[in-house]
Amino acid sequence: MSAASHVSSLAGSWYPGDPAALRDLLASVRERSEKRTGRFVRPGALGFIVPHAAPMYSGTVAASVYRHIRASGAARIIVLGFSHRRALPGIAVPAIEAYQTPLGEVRVDRETATRLSAIHPFHAVNESAVSDHSVEIQVPFLQVYAPETSIVPLYVGRLSVEERTTAAEALRNQLDGRTVLVASSDLTHYGHAFGYEPFDAARAENGGLRTLDLGALAASGSLSPPVLSDYIARTATTVCGAGPIELLLEVMRRVPEEVFMEMFDYETSGAITGNYQHSVSYGAVGFFPHSAFHLERDQQVALLASARYSLDQFRRHRARESREPADDALRQKGRVFVSLYENKQVRGCVGCFPAPHPLAASTARLAASAFEDRRFGAIENSGNLEVEIQILTPPKSLADLTKLKGGVHGAWLNSGNSEGLLLPIVAERYGLSRTQFLSELARKAGLPDSIYTGSDWQLSVFRVQRFAESDFNSTTS
């Protein structure tokens, strides 16, 4: 089987065939991405889900992934694509040396491709047998955002549970700190042409598609392939790259440090064109070890100082004022809780969850709100309060209660209109077992312990980074 360069057939149709026009297009979607999601990019990503439509449609959403790839310093990108034309057995590895686009060549890491091809269910094939835009649409993005990287193109087909497990272990061994995985997939394909119209176009426009798609992404965030496949089967939603995503999740489950998924951006072609009779959805997410959500020491100090300023302004003048740090990392959207302590006793604890908000602005607002929290008793000496901040990872859906780690995981329980949240410090402070923690969580949500014996509940877990003023030998005022 001979290996040669593959010339992409997408130039001139899916994207401009002129190099300058193509660069201009990719620059414009990057600018739109920064306006939509902010300039902050999180380091340490291990994998991504990225769309694969024409850049004029999904390019802005895709750019949020490639901005992270550029910041990661990755030297090798393993693209998990698939064939839209026919079902494939196993995982096909095309025998090519490089991809050519109007922007030049991207080198295929033949050593890795050959090594994987020798492991079942990977197998080498001629490029002509699998060539598909799910892989090729990613190449120009790599050429602009990470021009020094090599690529390992993989076409994911039918896999048994055992085959997916074997393949995931082989891919896990490729994560050397300079390699990231990219699962190529669009989300819901809605409309008559796709044979999928679970509701009318008006509902599609007014939240129907978003609910379907965010449900699929939340299922992906569980890192459990069965959870995702069950969701797709239950809703019949037309996620085209389910196979690549499931393989990516299987790899992420094997990373030694616990992994959490963060959503970057989401859009539909219906919103872009104004035509919801025919719409494809695009989502971009990243998978990170939990430590990637931690703030550096100087950022912790700056955030505490910002919270202290807002607390003092409210305490002394009842004025809600903020003085936000300029650091982009502190303007990222995140989840945070602010607690106030007096003589080591909690006197207030308020947070933002589950939706993320700009971190510094949220922390400033919560510091003032925590001062008004009287659930923990009256404040005796308002001038002797210490500020503590807890930064939360994104929540991860958890179907198996035995996977909850007491004192490590915080948890959020949702059932109908009832919900409750407990931070991991609750289990630590009171020495609660997993069963006791879950019981307290149900009580916090106003639900009976028996809620867990049914199916009408959702549990998400998260980790926290906790730091306080006393950690830095600062004085409270």
Defining key terms:
single chain, about 475 residues, alpha+beta, Protocatechuate 4,5-dioxygenase, Chain B, Dna Ligase, domain 1, 5-stranded antiparallel beta sheet, globular
Predict the CATH topology of the largest domain: Protocatechuate 4,5-dioxygenase, Chain B
The oligomeric state of the chains shown is: single chain
Number of helices: 14
Beta-strand percent range:
25-35%
How many discrete domains? Answer: 2
Based on CA inertia axes, which overall geometry fits? globular
**Largest sheet entry:** 9 strands, mixed
Task: State the total count of DSSP E strands.
Answer: 21
Average pLDDT taken over every residue: 94
**Whole-Å distance between the termini?**
74 Å
Structural class: alpha+beta
CATH superfamily of the largest domain: LigB-like
Top-tier CATH class of the largest domain: Alpha Beta
Uncertain runs? none
In CATH terms, what is the architecture of the largest domain? 3-Layer(aba) Sandwich
Radius of gyration: 24 Å
**Helix share of residues?**
25-40%
